[in-house]
């Protein structure tokens, strides 16, 4: 009997009927511009901010928790084994802000 193991899955580390989910990939971005108005006051500043959450709009699927069994009790493969059917992060969100600082 021969067994092959991946490098990231050493022998004995994983149990039968186990499934690994995908990783998480989420980038957020924030950009701001300060606009000083010396006519009003030396320290008066209006700041414009643009904040983007999940900028690349990458879908991050949840682990197949509801579909974690790969085989039935008789050893037959299940039709919905390891199905990725829901996401774990929100879609892209953009927030624009105008902030007065004095």
The geometry reads as: rod-shaped
Largest sheet: 3 strands, antiparallel
Number of strands: 3
Low-confidence stretches: 1-5
Quaternary structure state of the chains depicted: single chain
Helix amount: under 10%
The overall average pLDDT, rounded, is 79
Give the ordered list of helices and strands.
EEE
Radius of gyration over C-alpha positions, nearest whole angstrom: 25 Å
| Tally of individual helices | 0
Number of domains: 1
* Terminus-to-terminus distance: 76 Å
Query: In what order do the strands lie side by side in the largest sheet?
Result: 1-2-3
Q: Into which percentage range does the β-strand content fall?
A: 25-35%
Structural class: mainly beta
How would you portray this structure in words?
By secondary structure, this protein is mainly beta. The protein has one domain (29-101). It contains no helices and three strands. It has a three-stranded antiparallel β-sheet, with no helix packed on it. It is rod-shaped. Mean pLDDT is 79; it is low at 1-5.
Sequence-ordered SSE layout with sheet pairings:
Blueprint: E1 29-36, E2 45-53, E3 93-101
Antiparallel strand pairs: 1-2, 2-3
Which tags fit this structure?
about 25% strand, mainly beta, disordered N terminus, 3-stranded antiparallel β-sheet
